Amino acid sequence: MLKEKILNKEKGLVLYGLTPPKAEFEESKLRDISDRWTGRIEGINADGLVLYEVQDESERNDSERTFEFSGTLSPEIYYRDYLSVATPSVFYRVASGYNEDAFRAALAAQSSNLNVLVGATSSSQKVRLNLARAYEIAGEFENLAVGGVCIAERHAKKGDEPQRMREKIAAGAKFFISQAIFDAQMTRKFLEDCAAAKITEPIFLTFSTAGNPKTLEFIKWLGVSVPSSVEDRLNASEDYLAQSCEIIKEIWRELKQFGDENGLNLSANIESVMAKRAEIEASLELAREFRSL
C-alpha cells in the first residue's frame, strides 16, 4: 500500500494529482465526470492519487485570476462516493477552512490514511485553524500519516524552506509534495539545501502539463516560477503541449539524478490543472512514461 511505501521511504513512486469536479454540477454530470476519471486512473497504474482540497488563492496574488474560482467537492466525498478505484489516495486538507471540531471529525470519518496539511495562502488570511494545531490534531490518529507542502519559490525568496520542512517533520510530517515545477535551477538550489539539511523524507516533485499560453499563465498566477527560456521555448514550438511534456521530462531527469547523487528521496506527482482533454491525456501519458524514467 502507498502508506507503507512512503513510510519505508521507497523512491521512484508515481502519483497522479487531480482536483475534484465543481460542487455546483448536477448529479448526472458528476457521475459522468467520475466515470471517465475512474477509467483513466485505472489505465495509468499509479502508486496513488492526490486529491486536492482547493482554496481561493486570490489573497496572495494582486493580479487578476486567470480563471474564476469555483468550489469543488471535498476529496473525501469524491473518492468515497464517486470514484470507483482501488488506487490509494492522498487527501489535501486546507487547515484554515476548519475549526478544531470539524477538522477532527473530518479526519475520523475519512477513507484515506494519507493527508497533506496545507496552511493559509498568506500571512494576512484569517484562519479558523492554524497549521501547527492541525498537525497536533492529526497526531491523535494513529493510522494517519501526514505530509506537508514544499515550495521552491518560497525558498528562493526566504531561504528557509528546509527549516520549515524540519519543523513539519518534528510535528509529524512523513513526506512532502511540492508545488508544480518549471524552474529546474530554482528547484535544484532548493534540493541542494534540503540535502545539506539531511532531509531524507520522501519528496514528491509535482509536474503539470501546459497546452497553451493561457494555461501557463494560470500556472504562473498560482505562484509557479517559469523561466523566460522555458516560456520562449514553448512559444517557439509547433506543439506547445508536447514541448511542455519534454521540458518536464528533462527537468525530472536532472533533478532525479541530483537527488540520487545527494541522498534525497525523490518521487513524482503528475497533474493537469485544466479540464481540457488534450492536457489531461498528456498528463496521463506522462504518468505512464515516468515509470521508465
TrEMBL record:
One of its GO terms (biological process) is methionine metabolic process. Belongs to the methylenetetrahydrofolate reductase family. Its cofactor is FAD. One of its GO terms (molecular function) is methylenetetrahydrofolate reductase [NAD(P)H] activity. This is Methylenetetrahydrofolate reductase. It comes from the Bacteria. Keywords: FAD, Flavoprotein, Oxidoreductase. InterPro entries: FAD-linked_oxidoreductase-like (IPR029041), Mehydrof_redctse-like (IPR003171). It comes from Campylobacter showae RM3277. It holds the Pfam family MTHFR. Pathway: One-carbon metabolism; tetrahydrofolate interconversion. Gene3D superfamilies: 3.20.20.220.
